[in-house]
Design goal:
This protein is globular. Strand 25 and strand 26 form a beta hairpin. Helix 1 packs parallel to helix 9 and helix 4 packs parallel to helix 6. It has a 5-stranded parallel sheet, with helices on one face. A 4-stranded parallel sheet has the order 13-12-11-17. Strands 6-7-8 form a 3-stranded antiparallel sheet. By secondary structure, the protein is α/β, with parallel strands linked by helices. About 30% of the residues lie in helices and about 25% in strands. The protein contains 11 helices and 26 strands. The protein starts with a strand and ends in a 7-residue tail after the last helix. The chain has 2 domains: about 150 residues, FAD/NAD(P)-binding domain (3-Layer(bba) Sandwich), CATH 3.50.50; about 140 residues, 3-Layer(bba) Sandwich (FAD/NAD(P)-binding domain), CATH 3.50.50.60. The structure holds flavin-adenine dinucleotide. The site of flavin-adenine dinucleotide (FAD) has 33 residues, from helix 1, strand 2, helix 2, helix 5 and helix 9. Flavin-adenine dinucleotide binds next to helix 1, strand 2, helix 2, helix 5 and helix 9. Belongs to the NADH dehydrogenase family. Its EC number is 1.6.5.-. It is an enzyme of class 1 (oxidoreductase).
Length: about 400
């Protein structure tokens, strides 16, 4: 009986599990995650802003486990010893495997900016996203006590895809924040600080303009071309030309970038920022029985000669591919190479506004927000199946 282990029940890990569970003979699977639930990382900004309860973007991992071949262990992965085919878990010790899928996802990248770890909130899982929302509400309470204007300021560091989606959801919940502080909605200010001169280089001018026009209409203070030099308590220090300036804010959220799980480097894989340049079949360059997929993996895009960006879309595709390749290996068949063609990407700015590319076609406004929700439902379907779509799917099309 071959032993397959999957580390991490995010998009990539659960998609691999679904593929493996299509066959039920000749192997057993163990899937490990630190949480009892899977969370939709693409919706974390909504929990952080308080526009969705965390239960809406999670479901129990046991719901998608077929107990006749799969065991779920809720535990923390400490280290992988690929040479000895072992995984070290915090509470349940050492586990042996024949085939391993590493899908441990992302962590926040501070790029060594002083004070970022200490004074900014990250948004990488359910706990950290909930902390952001709690911090905003606590800051609004502090404003009531102190009348210090800084508590009404929310600073988002980074205007990439995640930062902009977060800003959109924060705008949507400004009324709740203002009510809590006992002020007008216009008194709560959302800042977005970005080193690059413009935002979202992956989108064309028309889509960027749609986004920028809306942010301006919603009074978002978009501070592009302002490199963050450091953070202090309730303060973002940034460069304005040659001059260093400070922005005071009761809530500071860090969304400048991500790298792959720290377990990758700690386990001795050849990596860069927690990502391994895998072979075309998605296995590690040294170990043919170790698949690295999702945000811990780097696959070259032959068009740009750079690794594909890490997204849920590619993580899902890699999960399915790794699952199929492991089934082939168990059956003594050759593996196949991974091929990826992006279906485009759509960024939401609040519940009813979005913009992006579907294939090569621009979509924006309400139709784009509809497309975005259908994309979310599709990824729920890919990991959790119809049951989870019915229970947790996004059908809030008109709010
Ligand atoms: C706010 C936000 C919005 C986004 N929007 C989009 C979008 O619109 N479209 C898109 O394609 N992508 C989007 N992304 C990117 C996307 O979420 C990631 O690329 C995707 O989650 C990667 O999938 P994964 O399976 O590799 O990892 P994850 O989904 O992060 O799953 C990793 C799993 O591993 C578990 N884990 C981690 N470390 C350990 C450990 N040591 N022990 C045990 N378990 C562990 C975690 O609990 C988690 O369940 C967004 C990301 C964010 C944060």
């Amino acid at each position: 009986m071959k032993k397959v282990m999957i580390l991490g029940a995010g998009y990539a890990g659960l998609r691999a599990l679904r593929e493996l569970q299509k066959k039920t003979k000749g192997f057993e699977v163990t899937i490990v995650d630190r949480n009892s639930y899977h969370f939709e990382s693409t919706d974390l900004h909504e929990v952080a802003a308080g526009t969705q309860p965390w239960g809406k973007i999670t479901y129990e991992i046991s719901d998608v486990v077929n107990p006749s071949i799969t065991t779920f262990i809720q535990d923390e992965v400490i280290e992988i010893d690929a040479k000895n085919q072992e995984v070290h878990l915090k509470d349940s010790g050492v586990h042996q495997y024949d085939y391993l899928v590493v899908s441990l996802g992302f962590r926040s990248e501070t790029f060594g900016i002083p004070g970022a770890e200490e004074f900014a909130l990250e948004m990488i899982d359910i706990d950290s996203a909930r902390k952001v929302h709690e911090n905003i509400l606590a800051a609004m309470d502090k404003y009531k006590e102190t009348q210090d204007r800084k508590y009404l300021n929310i600073a988002v560091c980074g205007a990439g895809f995640t930062g902009i989606e977060l800003v959109g959801s924060l705008v949507e919940n400004k009324k709740e924040f203002a009510n809590r502080a006992g002020v007008k909605k216009s008194d709560v200010t959302i800042y977005c600080v970005e080193a690059a001169p413009s935002i979202l280089p992956m989108f064309n001018d028309e889509l960027r303009k749609y986004c920028l026009d809306n942010l301006a209409k919603w009074d978002v203070e978009l501070m592009t071309g302002k490199a963050i030099k450091g953070l202090k308590q309730d303060t973002v220090v940034y460069a304005d030309g040659e001059v260093e300036k400070e922005l005071a804010a009761g809530t500071i959220i860090w969304t400048t970038g991500v790298s792959g799980s720290e377990i990758i480097g700690k386990s001795g894989f050849e990596e860069r920022r927690g990502r391994v340049m895998v072979k075309p079949n998605l296995t590690d360059p040294t170990y043919d029985n170790v698949y690295l997929i999702g945000d811990v993996s780097a696959v070259m895009d032959p068009e740009t000669n750079r690794p594909y960006p890490t997204t849920a879309q590619i993580a899902l595709k890699m999960g399915a591919h790794a699952g199929r390749n492991i089934l082939s290996q168990i059956a003594g068949q050759p593996t196949t190479d991974f091929k990826f063609e992006s279906l485009g990407s759509v960024a939401s700015i609040g519940n009813t506004h979005a913009f992006g590319l579907v294939g090569k076609i621009n979509v924006k406004g309400y139709p784009a927000s509809f497309v975005k929700k259908m994309i979310m439902n599709k990824s729920l379907l890919d990991t959790g199946g119809v049951k989870e779509v019915m229970a947790k799917g996004r059908f809030d099309l008109y709010r």
